[in-house]
Amino acid sequence: MTPLLAADEPFVRWDWVGDHTDDIVDAFWEHLSLTVVAVGVGFVISMLLALVAMRWRWTYEPLAGVCSVLYAIPSLALFGVLVSIPFFGLGFRTAEVALVSYTLLILLRNIVAGLDGVPAAAREAADGMGYESWRRVLRVDLPLATPAIVAGLRIATVTTVGLVTVTSLVGVGGFGGLINDGLGRSFSTPIVVGTVLSVALAIAFDLLFVAVEWLITPWARAGATGGPSPDDLATAATRATRDEKWVGLARSGGLP
Amino acid sequence: MTDRTAPLGGAATSGPSAAPSAPGPAPTDGADASADFPVNQAAVSDAAASDATAARPADEAALRLEELTKVYPGAARPAVGGLDLTIPRGELVALVGPSGCGKTTTLKMINRLVEPTSGTVWLDGTDIRTLPIHELRRGIGYVIQQAGLFPHRKVRDNIATVPQLLGWPKARIRDRVDELGALLDLDPVLLDRYPAALSGGQQQRVGVARALAADPPVLLMDEPYSAVDPIVRARLQDELLALQQRVHKTIVLVTHDIDEAIKLADRIAILNVGGVLEQVGPPEELLRAPADDFVADFLGDDRGIKRLSLMRVEQATLARGPVVAPGADADEARAVMAREQSDFVAVVVGDDLRGWIGAEEIDRSGRVAEADARPFVAVVHPDTTLKAALDVIVTSRSRVAVVVQDEPDGTRRFLGVLSLDDLAEGITR
Lengths: 256, 429
Fold this sequence. Notes:
The complex is a heterodimer of chains A (256) and B (429).
Chain A: H1 14-19, H2 21-55, H3 60-72, H4 75-83, H5 92-116, H6 120-128, H7 133-164, H8 175-185, H9 188-216, H10 230-252
Helix pairs in contact in A: 2-5, 2-7, 2-8, 2-9, 3-5, 3-10, 5-7, 5-10, 6-7, 7-9, 7-10, 8-9
Chain B: H1 31-36, H2 43-50, E1 63-70, E2 80-87, E3 92-96, H3 103-110, E4 118-123, E5 126-127, H4 133-138, E6 140-143, H5 155-159, H6 161-166, H7 170-183, H8 200-212, E7 218-222, H9 230-247, E8 250-255, H10 258-264, E9 267-272, E10 276-281, H11 283-288, H12 293-299, H13 303-310, E11 323-324, H14 330-340, E12 344-349, E13 352-358, H15 359-365, E14 379-380, H16 386-395, E15 400-406, E16 412-419, H17 420-428
Parallel strand pairs in B: 3-8, 3-9, 6-7, 7-8, 11-12, 14-15
Antiparallel strand pairs in B: 1-2, 1-4, 4-5, 9-10, 12-13, 15-16
Helix pairs in contact in B: 7-8, 13-16, 14-15
């Protein structure tokens, strides 16, 4: 690999930034759409998997196992396989398959942890008062699992924003495209711009989720509820997910 | 099959729903209660009334458990084995027993949170298995340990749970919630808070309000007060008794606390391990004549004292006591004290109790002067329990309690005195 910085090159050349605002804006939209679609699709899939796992408890470990395997597949290998399949090829679809795969484990674990954390008394009261099971899940279980689910979404989204830079290898990488460009030319400015904006986007998403959670869980601010709160459980789940990620990284020998 | 009627005697509490064509509240939803409680027209009573064969007699039990059995998969012994139990309309029946006696399992078979292995639960003469399960549950109030409120819904919406499930119009739900808030003495400010902002006792009260929301004739309560501290528990129990005076629900209460059962229940069913019914009857009857050693042990070695808690001063025979009028001379006072074997006299004008004067003071002054009379400390009222009266007696210097009736004009009408002997007679009678 060539050195990152040429000797006579400044760290950031602002005139380049000025000349390339269109490219940067395009990269932003690409990055944003790759992330939103990946987390959105991943969320829908994991929610369905979580509901299956809650309904038929024995399916949870196998489902989580499959998600762990997906999580552990090195992204380079996955890209290599997918680009050779005509439907996927180089581009958006291949990138999304990889990105969605990596959200599933985090989201599934957090949704299940959140649903498990619903107070048994609330669940029993709902059943005893005549909620149909689908209605109970919708009106009682999911709202109460919201803090844990949002915690999962935050991790999954931040992870995805970071991963999108890697999908530049298949031609769609948002800010990753800028970074790739800079790396190829030993030109630091696009690398710095891409990295800073990618991190900024991750932080923006995170703050957005914090705000949304604050808005939709007014009850969580009302005071301590006694017993482990959904938040505690989310933290535990998050920790487990994080540990698995490191195991996954060790197995795959590098970044996913 | 569904026209099977309970072979139950009892008072003919005929009410409006004795006629099979009149769906509506259970007949014992007392007069004032049914007036200010919107009628739950869903589920249970409709289903029962629309059953062509359900021409049920007026004195029928609200709930009847017949050969009710639950064997959990893999369990060697049944959790509940062939339980027969009749729960009369408008009564509070407590299921009591040691852990493993299947009392909670029994309760949950009534709203089908647990499905019986065999046997039948009859609700208003209808086999509950013939009712749609969710409608059955919406027609039965359910109060659980630690209240089980929904943390994400305001108190108001918690209470509105079943009416919302039943699709009541918003305005009606709102009125009903306000009404229940008043009935259970909930500060209106609390209605718009989340449950986490409420104390344990308040949460439990909301739990009861929620169970009563759609005015179900039957209420199931599963250890409702086990998670609150003793002081709050006693207050909630008193409130339940007062509430039951107004709403006359058929209540099945599960508790491990025999004192709670004695205090609250019209009837107590004592269960042994494996859901075996050892004895059922009014608390007074169980305490007076426990069927066997198990029941006697379970009731505790202070059965006599517990019976005192069920009886009131007005039930005891009162002695007139060492009563004198003010102005009487010392000899008369001494004669009264000698007759009553006391060392004081009670000064009474007409019926009005003015106080007491000790023997030494009469000796000193030579007469009974109203100005010398000191107020009684050991005072009880007609509605005081004999247990509380016992406490007053054993802690009083004179070993008697003075029974008075507080009159609205501020005077204390003297009714007599109560001694240890009178109490002992009350127990053995």
